[in-house]
Amino acid sequence: CDAKFSLTSSLITHQRSHNREKPFSCTLCDAKFTQSSAFKRHVETHTGEKPLSCDLCDAKFSHNSSLISHSRTHTREKPFSCTLCDAKFTQSGAL
């Protein structure tokens, strides 16, 4: 395809989408991944490890993105806006 990347690692990951290569396999289930970061995140679902803590309550998280989303429940920050109306949301998936 005509996709261009500034990082070789991004090109390699993209090429895997074409040839369906998933070199990172979970030994605990049948899940396979194209990226090591996605694989590492998946493995944490098996270990239950949650090293990140909210400074304002007792909530714990395994991923920084989850901690950031949670922190918005305390700050009431809504950084995602609908382009069709004035609605604002705490998470982009709610758009």
Kindly summarize this structure in a few lines.
The chain has helices at 8-19, 36-47, 64-75; strands at residues 24-25, 32-33, 52-53, 60-61, 80-81, 88-89.
Report the span from N to C terminus.
30 Å
Record the strand order, biggest sheet: 1-2
The biggest beta sheet is recorded as: 2 strands, antiparallel
Order of helices and strands: HEEHEEHEE
Q: Which segments are poorly predicted (pLDDT under 50) over 5 or more consecutive residues?
A: none
- Please give the count of helices: 3
Question: Domains counted in the coordinates: how many?
Answer: 2
What average pLDDT do the residues reach?
A: 89
CATH topology of the largest domain: Double Stranded RNA Binding Domain
CA gyration radius, whole angstroms: 18 Å
- Tell me the total number of β-strands: 6
Strand content: 5-15%
